[in-house]
Design a protein that fits this description.
Layout (H helix, E strand, L loop, with lengths): L4 H12 L7 H25 L4 H12 L5 E2 L1 H6 L5 H13 L3 E5 L7 E5 L1 H22 L4 H18 L4
Antiparallel strand pairs: 1-3, 2-3
Helix pairs in contact: 2-6, 3-5, 3-6
Length: 165
Amino acid sequence: MELDRVARIQAEWARERPDLDVSPQGVIGRLHRLAAVLTEQLAVVYRRHGLGEGEFDVLAALRRAGAPYERAPGELAQHTMVTTGAITKRIDRLERDGLVTRRPGRDDGRRRVVALTEAGKRVIDQAFTEHMANERQLLDALDAADAARLEQILTAWLARFEPPR
């Protein structure tokens, strides 16, 4: 039986460090490898729409906000997988590309908001449609029961690190 990359690494460590339990690598190593593969497959769609992963995430957060499709920069950090420090860089690029605008808030002129432009809304609607088809295709590598069970396991595990709010 051929060993996958993770199993080969585990076998080497087990040989070199028999005093350590290397079994966690079976899960963590495969999740790490799978995350890299999935991220690259998702990025193909983002690139087709002229976006990086962070830009896609910012546009998606604005679109999910509902009309008028705007959020304050701090809110964007809370509603994306992009760090607060990276939000400004993403917004700058999206604004330069005409996909978002920055403006004073409606109720408080001191507050700044980022809003989707019409072009931004078109781009994210097209990109998200393709993104969902891509995710479906990737997930279809598992049967429905395995996918549902995996979602339950990952949800419970993630909640240990990021409690649901």
